[in-house]
Amino acid sequence: MNAIDDDDGARRDILRAVGLMLCSAGAFACMAVTIRKASAELHPFEIAFFRNLFGMVFALPLLARHGWGLLRTTKLHLYFTRCLIGVVSMLCGFSAIVYLPLAQAVTLSYSTPLFVTIAAVLVLGEVVRARRWSAVAAGFVGVLLIVRPGTEGFSAMSLVALGAAVLSAGVAIGIKILSRTEKSDAIVLYTTLFWVPMSLVPALFVWTWPHGWTWLWIVGAGFLGTLGHMFWTRALKLGDASLLTPISFAQVPIVAVLGWALFGETVGPWTALGALVIFGSNAYIAHREATLARRAGPGTRTVAIAAADAPAADGPGRGTQAPPR
Predict the structure, then answer these.
(1) Where are the beta strands (DSSP E) in 29-110?
(2) Phi, psi for residue 273 in degrees, rounded to 5
(3) Angle at 310 between CA 307 and CA 313, to 5 degrees
(4) Residue 48 to residue 50: CA distance in whole angstroms
(5) pLDDT, tens digit (0-9, with 9 covering 90-100), for 133-182
(6) What CA–CA distance (Å, rounded) separates 303 from 249?
(7) CB atoms within 10 A of CB 19
(8) In b/e form, how buried is each residue of 191-202, taking b as 16+ CB within 10 angstroms?
(9) Is the pTM higher than 0.85?
């Protein structure tokens, strides 16, 4: 009877995790829409600042819950470096959302796990075997299908989107290092506290005071970004990253539908094909890393799985994502 109850409980946890991850995908997709809406009046750099400002407001209850002791750390220099890389990634990601079709910008953000895998080998010395390298190579083929360098469909802004993904991978490595000694809520709170002044500096060079509906869009961006991260982290506490990472890719079709309905954007065949290839690559990498972590025993996690427990650079995707990625 207990075994049956345990199985029912596990199934409920899986269903809840899937539902939370879908909610996260929806929140991040809607955040991309609010960024695009706000860009009718504001520069992407200024939108990033307001997203961080209101995101900090929504994150402050963490301090009320844990007290000032949450901020006690000896790793302030690592927080600063991780946040500086993250804010540059965010500026690139927000620019991609504004100047590229939404589906293309979001899909390219999901290339972060490819760069995370490479960085984990170079920086952390993690071992990656032939099958995961093959998945990484396939993922880069998907990226090339979307970017299409040397063709009429190429846009220099797609390189900015890829830059955001590369920097987001650096953020994921920073999270991996910090998570060895720091609490997840401390990483979240320090991120918001650093990002506000860091993103204010470039915003001042393009400053325009928002008016009317624009206030709704920038407050919404802050709320939806924080909400998406909350859904994301709670989903990963209930389910395996190997199951949930592919589900997070639901953000791409959601944002594609929103882009078509609100901005008249269509998804070209090359973007759709590239998205499918990147999806398959990410799904295999997540599955393989989860399998290796289970074989290594309890408490052992690869960089991509560990990084998924805290927000990376908050670009088109979760930043990654994970991620995001």
Answers:
(1) none
(2) -65, -45
(3) 85
(4) 6
(5) 898 999 999 999 999 887 888 888 999 999 999 998 888 788 778 877 88
(6) 19
(7) 14
(8) bbbbbbebbbeb
(9) no
